[in-house]
Design goal:
The complex is a heterodimer of chains A (270) and B (587). Chain A has 270 residues and is mainly beta. Chain A folds into 2 domains: 122 residues, Jelly Rolls, CATH 2.60.120.260; 101 residues, no CATH class. Chain A has 2 helices and 15 strands. In chain A, strands 2, 9, 10, 11, 12, 13, 14 and 15 form an 8-stranded antiparallel β-sheet that branches. The radius of gyration of chain A is 20 Å and the shape is flat. By secondary structure, chain B is mostly beta strands. Chain B contains 7 helices and 32 strands. In chain B, the strands form 9 sheets. In chain B, strands 3-2-1-6-7-8-5-4 form an 8-stranded mixed β-sheet, with no helix packed on it. A 6-stranded mixed β-sheet of chain B has the order 22-28-29-30-27-23, with no helix packed on it. In chain B, strand 7 and strand 8 form a beta hairpin. Chain B starts with 7 loop residues before the first strand and ends in a 5-residue tail after the last strand. The chains are: A mainly beta (270), B mainly beta (587). At the A-B interface, strand 10 and strand 11 of A face strand 1 and strand 3 of B. Strand 11 of chain A pairs parallel with strand 1 of chain B, so a sheet runs across the interface.
Chain lengths: 270, 587
């Protein structure tokens, strides 16, 4: 699946004062989410696949409803501004399910943000103009899938684009390949141990103020939690990772005015 | 995706069965209540149970896989770091000096990386807890606190490929022996062993030790009509039976309960079974003995494993044991007396060596197998060769001169069952069979003597059979080959027979020689990718043909199929031949 840009007006809008308005050729990082602390209810669940799985970032824990139509709803306790939704470790595509994102202020009247029929089981990021609402719901139709991770929050728009040399994450497979050759020199077989994806990201010329206000909270979160990242939503919307860092992220002063550089490596599932 | 798929993606799933109460906290019959029986709800395990009388465990299967592996429809924690195995190694006839007659037991070690956990699945009341489980403790630290009684619970390793259903994967089963960790780096290691560990000498003894003691003194000459025994129940001494007191054996015909502190064994006959009368003192142990009369070996092994080793009967295919035994071990109906608690492994080792069969845990089929040492039988077996099967640089050919035998000495007819088993003077009979040609200067030029001390054999025919079969199998140096094959050939497993064509094993012209081997051990060195086999040449050095008695409507030799010619037998012509082929030996 891919980044879904719900509104084309997202491209180059705003004055960047609130951290928004950067073009969609800049990376988007989805790390904030209400789903860890909001009150979650689900329409139904099956043994071993509880709704509670949607409240933690583990990819191996999944919610699977007993039947469709099904829903998972979050009550944030107060209106929150949301501009992205991330979904990972799911079978929405392979199961043939369709899902809709809706929001409400009163838990009674719902507005549909978007309805989507995923083509595959890769990570999904939906980007849309900010919406403020207390109640959020995913409704599922057509087939019973399993869903492991849902993030609902405010996306981090990177101040600068990625420059040359970046290896797109979904193209950076991490595998161990083992061939077998016989005593007589014949090809006997080949095995692959899949280890996911691995890549790194580097940015230069980030302003010190932007880094401290918008990027450092992500760094703090990344010490504990995975995040969604789309490296070039405008041109390669299908290249989204649900990734995690295995090391601390440390910026560097460039020594030019107050500009900073930062980079980090990730492992991921796509 | 399967073994034949090029670019198959490996998938390993480790399953641990934990005991998990089927009741709900505080719901009848569970009488637990917060504030009354405990400060919080249990975790449906015995260690946290607040109403043990109603604790009713069922197996809860926890699944683990390696990071990066995908099982979208299974709750599978990706925390497995590595899986390493030491395979079962069978030792037919006790030929190898590197292991006992029962061979080597399989074991497995699974290493995990510990991690925070939501308690989903393992805590049925997780939604009601006043804390966030994922922020409290780690998976294994919590699991071990709630499940201290994990010994002998089932651990399975399933090895397959992405997209395969769990039940289609190759599955091996073990019993958990110990769990180490988590250490300071969050490493946890589970060690599990094969099911035959239940028969280990330190776990299983036959007969079980008796609690009874003599109430009074008895002199050497005293005639005893009723033996007075205390500290025991009558049910511990089923009648009729045999007991051992010090070095004297006595039989009894009945048992009566006299009082809460006394039972009496009646119909006593002193100094039976070759033992000598002795004087005894109050407090001397009265040990029940196990007596077997004409019991076939498979039934004996089955009884020891299931009754004294407490091996679940489901893990033994008794019908298959009986079929193999009725064909090849029919002669081995055994008679003997076990006069003191003896390790089941020791007992099994005795009869497997003396009766020419072997047993092992087939971790894939989840069965304890039994197979006789026998001549090659007519069967179509898989073929492996250098081109299509054997992985480059993996073949090693070796011999074990220590495993060769030129003489077999069987001591039988035990005089006194209370004496040391390996004391030669304690046997009335000795049957010796020697292959003098093999010992001659032109062949091996030395004697290699194998001595067997048997309390079980009770006829000369049995002793002759043992000596003949052992010499036939081990007249020459046992020859081995170790090879690795791709996973496409991993269907072969321990005990299977296979023909191998390898350039290192040739005839006298140098041409590769098609040689039949038996797999002694099989190990998935890289699970799902590569398997290593250790095999022994499957030969039987006899100079006559063996056949089975045929049905009345059997065809003539000329009209018989190849299989019938291999398995059947025909009377020979006056020249000793059948249809021009060598004749059969009547024995």
């Amino acid at each position: 699946m891919s980044v879904i840009v719900v509104s084309p007006s997202l491209v180059e809008q705003g004055d960047h004062a609130d951290g928004r308005g950067y073009p969609l050729n800049h990376a988007r990082i989805g790390w904030q989410t209400i789903t860890r602390d909001a009150i979650l209810t689900v329409s139904s669940e099956t043994a071993g696949f509880p709704g509670a799985a949607l409240s933690n970032p583990m990819t191996y824990e999944r919610w699977r409803p007993a039947s469709v139509p099904a829903w998972a709803a979050w009550d944030a306790g107060a209106p929150v501004e949301i501009d992205y939704i991330g979904i990972a470790s799911h079978t929405l595509g392979s199961s043939g399910a369709t899902f809709a994102i809706e929001y409400s202020d009163d838990n009674a009247t719902w507005t549909t943000l978007e309805t989507v029929q995923p083509a595959d089981d890769r990570a999904i990021m939906m980007l849309f103009p900010p919406v403020t609402a207390r109640y959020w719901v995913i409704r599922i139709y057509d087939a019973v899938p399993s869903v492991g991770v849902v993030y609902i929050g405010r996306v981090l728009e990177m101040q600068r684009g990625l420059y040359g040399g970046h290896s797109p994450g979904t193209l950076s497979r991490q595998t161990d390949i083992m061939p077998n050759r016989s005593e007589g020199g014949q090809f006997l077989g080949r095995s692959i141990i899949r280890e996911g994806y691995a890549t790194s990201y580097d940015w230069d010329n980030l302003t010190a103020a932007w880094y401290r206000q918008w990027f450092d909270p992500f760094v703090e979160s990344a010490r504990k939690y995975p995040f969604f990242i789309a490296w070039y939503p405008l041109k390669f919307p299908s290249e989204v990772l649900y990734a995690w860092c295995n090391d601390d992220i440390r910026p560097r002063n460039q020594g030019v005015r107050d500009l900073m550089s930062v980079g980090f490596s990730v492992e991921a599932i796509a | 995706m399967n073994e034949e798929t090029v670019g198959r993606e490996l998938q390993t799933v480790v399953e641990v069965e934990q005991d998990f109460c089927q009741h709900r906290y505080g719901v009848a019959p569970c009488a637990a209540a917060i504030g009354v029986t405990g400060p919080r709800k249990c975790f449906n395990t015995l260690a946290t149970c607040q109403d043990p009388e109603n604790y009713s465990p069922q197996p809860l299967v926890l699944r683990f896989c390696k990071p990066g592996e995908r099982l979208p429809d299974v709750y599978c924690i990706p925390s497995v770091d590595s899986v390493s195995t030491a395979p079962t190694e069978i030792n037919p006839g006790g030929g190898s000096q590197n292991s006992g007659p029962l061979g080597k037991r399989a074991s497995i070690r699974v290493s995990f990386n510990d991690h925070p956990h939501s308690d989903n699945l393992v805590d049925p009341y997780v939604a009601e807890r006043p804390y966030k489980p994922v922020e409290r403790g780690t998976f294994w630290s919590k699991w071990l606190a709630r499940n201290p009684y994990y010994n002998n619970r089932v651990l399975r390793v399933r090895e397959g490929y992405v997209g395969q259903a769990l039940e289609d994967m190759v599955t091996r089963t073990y019993l958990i022996d110990k769990i180490d960790g988590p250490d300071s780096r969050g490493r946890v290691q589970i060690t599990a062993k094969d099911v035959l560990k239940l028969a280990d000498n330190d776990r299983a003894q036959a007969p079980r030790p008796s609690a009874g003691e003599l109430m009074v003194d008895y002199s050497e000459e005293e005639a005893i009509s009723a033996l007075r025994v205390t500290r025991a129940l009558a049910t511990e001494y089923p009648a009729p039976g045999t007991v051992r007191i010090n070095d004297e054996l006595m039989t009894y015909t009945g048992v009566v309960t006299v009082s809460d502190t006394e039972i009496q064994l009646t119909g006593i006959t002193r100094a039976t079974d070759g033992s000598s009368p002795d004087s005894h003192e109050a407090g001397d142990r009265v040990q029940i003995c196990l007596r077997y009369t004409n019991v076939r070996v498979d039934n004996l092994a089955y009884e020891w494993l299931t009754q004294y080793g407490e091996v679940p009967a489901a893990w033994i295919d008794q019908a298959a044991w009986a079929a193999e035994s009725s064909l090849w071990l029919q002669q081995f109906d055994l008679t003997g007396l076990i006069t003191e608690p003896t390790g089941v492994t020791d007992l099994l080792s005795e009869i497997t060596e003396q009766c020419l069969f072997f047993i092992w845990w087939d971790e894939r089929a989840q069965k304890i197998r039994l197979e006789a040492i026998k001549p090659p039988i007519f069967q179509t077996v898989p073929k492996l060769n250098d081109n299509a099967n054997i992985i480059a640089d993996s073949a090693q050919v070796s011999q074990d001169p220590k495993g060769r035998v030129s003489q077999v000495w069987v001591y039988w007819g035990q005089r006194d069952p209370t004496e040391d088993l390996e004391k030669e003077a304690n046997y009335r009979k000795l049957r010796v069979r020697a292959d003098l040609e093999a010992e001659g200067d032109q062949q091996y030029g030395e004697q290699r003597i194998r001595k067997i001390y048997s309390r079980w054999l009770h006829s000369d025919a049995q002793a002759i059979n043992v000596t003949a079969r052992l010499l036939s199998r081990y007249r020459n140096n046992p020859r081995y080959i170790t090879i690795s094959v791709d996973a496409k050939d991993r269907e072969l497993w321990t005990g299977d027979v296979v023909d191998i064509l390898h350039r290192g094993v040739v005839d006298d012209t140098g041409a590769p020689l098609d040689t039949r081997y038996q797999i002694l051990s099989a190990e998935e060195t890289t699970p799902g990718h590569e398997v290593e086999y250790r095999l022994e040449v499957f030969e039987y050095s006899i100079n006559y043909r063996i056949g089975l008695w045929m049905e009345a409507d059997a065809p003539t030799y000329d009209a018989a199929t190849d299989e019938e010619k291999f398995t059947g037998a025909w009377w020979a012509d006056a020249d000793g031949k059948v249809g021009g082929d060598p004749g059969f030996n009547w024995t």
